[in-house]
């Protein structure tokens, strides 16, 4: 038995914003962010919400699209998981609103999860394990969409201009084929747990605050090496433990937070650029959906086919990394 990623689709926001907007924005503050934005983060353009677009509208759109693409209806889904750092609504859960829009069956399990940017990858592992153990459930729909941009301080050059808006949806299906999650390992390092915080003083103070800065996402400088180096060691370990080498991997779908991180992993593992796709210059950084948009683009470009091995690596603020060895 295997859990097949049977279908994947992506929907992005409608407005395209180039680096020029952010370069001019920070020039007015006497800040030159070109090196950070282009060389470190690797940004060029990004898709941004129009006035009537939200994480919920994109989630509904991509969910309907992936179901159509898979020739399925909402009633064919047994589990629906929605991953986001901050949903459009806290109550009810966004998964319930998606349930309504997709007309899922009444006995479908629905829940939202927040593991920050690692959420969708963690959901993939957990739902794969759930489908294997469940006597009833056969299919799961996982949807991810983040909107960090609306939370951040426009004066913070570390993150303003970094994000883009795009939702991704995947369908997992219980099959008799040899496919799915092979191995997974996590790495938690809480030394930087105070570097990316929202709300900056907690929800207990959110409505008491009279300072607008305290209502924004707090993003302080931190060294990315503390999760890049462990990631490469975990990848090497997972490959060795499962009798594989880097040459057996068709694609490394890595976090799209910063091009600099991907380049460092390429260097440390001697991975070709063609096997570690970067799409952050087109989409911006999309948070929870970013490694799966990399997967989507790789499949679309013919770089991944059925039976190929894929490595996922991403991390959430705080921080928690996940490395996953996967057979597509």
TrEMBL record:
<dbReference type="GO" id="GO:0033818">
    <property type="term" value="F:beta-ketoacyl-acyl-carrier-protein synthase III activity"/>
</dbReference>
<dbReference type="InterPro" id="IPR013751">
    <property type="entry name" value="ACP_syn_III_N"/>
</dbReference>
<protein>
    <submittedName>
        <fullName>3-oxoacyl-[acyl-carrier-protein] synthase-3</fullName>
        <ecNumber>2.3.1.180</ecNumber>
    </submittedName>
</protein>
<dbReference type="Pfam" id="PF08541">
    <property type="entry name" value="ACP_syn_III_C"/>
</dbReference>
<dbReference type="InterPro" id="IPR013747">
    <property type="entry name" value="ACP_syn_III_C"/>
</dbReference>
<feature type="domain" description="Beta-ketoacyl-[acyl-carrier-protein] synthase III C-terminal">
    <location>
        <begin position="239"/>
        <end position="326"/>
    </location>
</feature>
<dbReference type="Pfam" id="PF08545">
    <property type="entry name" value="ACP_syn_III"/>
</dbReference>
<feature type="domain" description="Beta-ketoacyl-[acyl-carrier-protein] synthase III N-terminal">
    <location>
        <begin position="111"/>
        <end position="186"/>
    </location>
</feature>
<dbReference type="InterPro" id="IPR016039">
    <property type="entry name" value="Thiolase-like"/>
</dbReference>
<keyword id="KW-0012">Acyltransferase</keyword>
<keyword id="KW-0808">Transferase</keyword>
